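Query protein
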Amino acid sequence: MIDSKRGESHPREVKMIRKNREIVGRLYECRGFTLIELVVVMGVIGILIAIAAPTYLDYKAKAHDLSSLTDAQNLLKLANQVLIDYDQIYLLHNTGDGSVIGNENDLLGNFIPQIYNLSLLGKAYVLILNYEWPPPTGRYTRIYVRAYNEKGTDDPFGLNGKKTFQVYMDFLTGQVTKNY
C-alpha cells in the first residue's frame, strides 16, 4: 500500500510482496517428472514383472497339483469305505463325467451315493471293483484312482498332458501302489 503522506510503499508490504514472489517462483520451478525419468521407472517395473510373472504362474500350477494329490489320497480312503459298505460294486468314473463322484448307479445297478466332490478344475478316473466273476470262483477287489488338475504342471505321460497322481490298491494281494 502506498503511504499517502510520503508517496511510497510501507516496508512491511514490500517484504510481503517479496515473499509472495519467492513462493510463486518456487512453484514454477517444481514442474514434475521428465519424460526420461518416467521411461526409466516404467522400464524397471516392466523388468520386475517379467521376472515375477513366470514364478507366480509356476507357483499356481504347483498349488493345483497339490489339490490333485489331495483328491487322489481322499478318493482312496473313501473308495475303501465304499467297498466296506457294499457287497458287490463296479463303479467307473471317467475324467469327463464331472466333479461329483458317486450319486449314480454303478455298472451292476446299485445306487452309489455321492462319495466325493473333486476340487476346482480337478479331474479323476476312479474304478472301484468288488464282484465275483465267474460267480463261484473268482473275486476281483481293486481300487484304481488317477487324478489331475486342468491347470496343473505339464507332464507328457500324465492324463491330458498334466501331472497325474495314481493310486492302485489290490485287496487280494494287499498291495498298494502309489505314484506321486
Residues 59-179 form one domain. The two ends are 90 Å apart (CA to CA). The chain has a mean pLDDT of 84. The first helix runs from residue 11 to 29.
